[in-house]
Write a structure and sequence with these properties.
Elements: H1 2-26, E1 31-34, E2 38-42, E3 51-56, E4 60-67, E5 70-75, E6 80-84, E7 91-92, H2 106-114
Antiparallel strand pairs: 1-4, 1-7, 2-3, 4-5, 5-6
Amino acid sequence: MNKLSKLFAVILTATFSFIPSLSAVAAEGPQVRVASDFINIHLGPAVETPIFYVAEKDEWMVLTNRRTGWFKVQTENGVEGWISENELVFTLDGDGNPVTYNPSLVKNFISSISK
């Protein structure tokens, strides 16, 4: 029984360590890199929701969804949460250029996410 318990623990550990990498690969959308020291990631699209993760400088995120004033992101290690659209000024695109976001162009931005 001891060998079976060890085998189960190894399989369980391998399964859970593989899940974040799968979800990071599955995310599609525009990619941005944190240019400031950090960006706070919230559990939901509101200031009142707790900050549960801090994306650090040079960490990559994929923008996967949008709600009024907020973007859902997934970090390179699979963490999913929400950042304020105001935080985009603290990110860079894939070419290293500052990301600019114009709320009046939301339809174009959303269509680029869904492609």
